[in-house]
Sequence to fold (279 residues):
Amino acid sequence: MFLKGKVVIKFVIRGKIMNKYPAILVSIVTVVLCVLGSFPLTTGFYLGDQHPLPKHIITVDDEPGVADYTSIKEALNHSSPGDTIEVFSGTYKEHGINITEEGISLIGMPYDLGNGSDTGKPFINGQGLYHVIYVMAPNVTITGFHIENRGPGSWCIIQALYNASGLVISNNTLLYSGDSIIYWIPWHAKIVNNTIRYAGLFYGIGLGPWDNGSGYNFIADNVIDHCPTGINLWNDIHDTIIRNRISNCTVFGIDIAANTNTIQDNTIENNAYGLHIYS
Fold:
């Protein structure tokens, strides 16, 4: 189905908008972007390759002797396309976790595999030494983790390469990075139900930028706060950004340098500027 004409963007915003009028309480702001030409409706979901990959389950636990591996990187080094890596509750001091195989699912398990007392999301401590997770393959899933990257370097928590289409990042707690929390998201990503806080230099979520573009991403139901900019869209098309709560950002709540995107029902409050649209 195709529509011509207008994209309607709705926000709940409390604070200032980039037009620099005096600060007012705005309960609903509707921004209408006029778009030339036609564009398809999209939810941002990516069904990916219709040819299923073979799947195996690999287990990781920080206590020796109870799982296949004690290291996430070691498990990935022994994985094949389509594998699921179940990481059980515990603490993992790792960075440079490179995902290079298609269809890998990295799943946090909120309990101990052995007889230990660990509970809650597995905690990955990147120590600020490099990107914690670097996604270099399509159709990867990362869900159920608590990840921090405090330390001396300007690195991200999750960074993707241009070929990492279909990336799913869900139900994670992602805190503290010297650069951005999630960055360089290309095509058909789904980023939902995450808590994202304390980015250093740039973004809670950065979509793009790639020379060959990015888009059709679905960003929903995230809590983003204490970042310079909550969500950045750079040259993206057909992204859907809905029901996110963005607050206490020192630059912008949402920064848009793109068109043909749907941005609706987001709560944006207590930011330096709630919404910035490049003309």
The first helix runs from residue 72 to 77.
